[in-house]
Amino acid sequence: MTTRKHVLAAMIAAPVAFAFAAPANAQVGGIASANYVRVVASTKAFGAAEEQIATTYKAAFEQLAQRRQALETEMKPLRDQLDTNKDGQVSDAELQSAQTAKSPTLQKIQTAQTNAQNDMVRLGNPAARAELFAIESILQRYEAAQLAVVNARKINVVLSPEAFIYAPDSVDISQAIAAEIDKASPTVSIQPPANWQPARETLAIQQQIAQIRSYQAAAAQQRAAQGQQAGAPPTQPAKPAEPR
Questions:
Q1: pTM recorded for the entire structure
Q2: Tens digits of per-residue pLDDT, 166-179?
Q3: Using an 8 Å Cβ cutoff, are 158 and 150 in contact?
Q4: Nearest CA to 36 among 227, 192, 172?
Q5: Tag placement on the chain: N or C end, fewer CB within 10 Å?
């Protein structure tokens, strides 16, 4: 039997896929696929944890936004110094010229960015740690939930989506696994013990979820910009795409 540890290791090595996938009702030839990231992100427990984190760490998120704005305010006059032709952007040629001249502005920019990054890590770490603990708690329920789906649907093999060149949507059982986890644990704690450290696999899943959020946010901004350019009001964000 393939263990959770081995499957998670394979998942980390595989690229993230962004696609819509319909809930599975049947499998093909006893073969199914499942995606750990999609399962975790689809559970009620993860949604509830995200809401609780947003409330618990509201002040920290506000401080993060303020720190980002402060960095932008600090960076603008520094970028303006490098923008020698005053066209509103720093070209590769202007950057190269500053590097050749060993402009002290470059060091000021690096220092500002480093200080801001350190501050944002410090402010964001408690919320990130809470999310990691929630993810790991959900993953602890994954194997039992997957086994329940496998037995109920008489599945012989479960592969990662990246193992398929083509497969119908019905092969994917991620939503079914998430539903089983919801039955057992609709909520999880976001308060890790003081000495708790997340597993490498947990960190990988959090990073992939963050990538998906970034992708969705960029897509929403692009749709809004296209709508404004066409003289129409910004379109409402579409339903978020889920990892296959």
A1: 0.75
A2: 888 889 999 999 99
A3: yes
A4: 172
A5: N
